[in-house]
Amino acid sequence: MKTALVLGAGGFIGGHLVKRLKREGFWVRGVDLKFNEHAETQADDFVVADLREPTNVRGVIDRRFDEVYQLAADMGGAGYIFTGEHDADVMHNSATINLNVADAAHKRNIKRVFYSSSACMYPAYNQEDPDNPICAEDSAYPAAPDSEYGWEKLFSERLFMAFNRNYGMENRIARYHNIFGPEGTWQGGKEKAPAALCRKIAQARSTDTIEVWGDGLQTRSFLYVDECVEGTTRLLRSDFSDPVNIGSEEMVTINQLAGAVADVAGKTISLNHIPGPLGVRGRNSDNRLIKEKLGWAPSQPLVKGLEKTYEWIERQVMRNAA
Questions:
Q1: Could you tell me which CATH class the domain 3-179+225-246 is placed in?
Q2: Which of 3, 112, 115, 198 has the most CB atoms around its CB within 10 Å?
Q3: What is this structure's pTM?
């Protein structure tokens, strides 16, 4: 039986990844600071551990694994990343985890680790036009991310690539673009835009007004979690070693996203635009490289994912209100 290690298995993407690996017949060890809040883990062995501590990392990387996925990070949506209030924690916690994981994997002679980077590492100067953002993989330099979160992701990309060059590792790096879906954070300040809008609209009456940060004309693309997991496993198992985007090319404004969620909910919702943390004006996945190197790219329409996500979040809202 093949074995897999998922670091960050208590998180949103990690939890879905564990399910995928179990369906494929893997024995899976999951590790996180806490269990998933929204679903029972399917990992064969789940270890609650702080990966900032080197001894804990060596304790869970105690053998050779066929596949290792490093998704553990200190992160959240715009309300967490772009206020500046959490910069030191975000940089210190995530960088420390990645330093520990790269070192422990190398010392166990584990050749290949998947690392989940982020589109937040792309230069802010290429994302000022909401209609024409530039997010091709080769546009990463000169570096100028719009947040300390993005700078840490860029550093950790270079860390795993340096281990490739110096120690003969074969680490794989994906730049995720706004992953969403059921069983993710949907309240509390760390939720991302799709979950926040689903929550607000689920809580609203049929003709209510909800608040949206900024003018709502900032653009993004959003990728449903199942497609993210598909791209993740394909990339780890491929022979392509450079960073690659994993995201959707279906770019929408935040106003359009809110309208799509309202349509799914069957409600007529008005928007009240208020000041708030925003990030760059435009961002969209450029999928030319992943199509060329993996012969695949995400293709599911945004609305299909929103239907599943809204249904799940609506249930959470109703359960909380009961």
A1: alpha beta
A2: 198
A3: 0.95
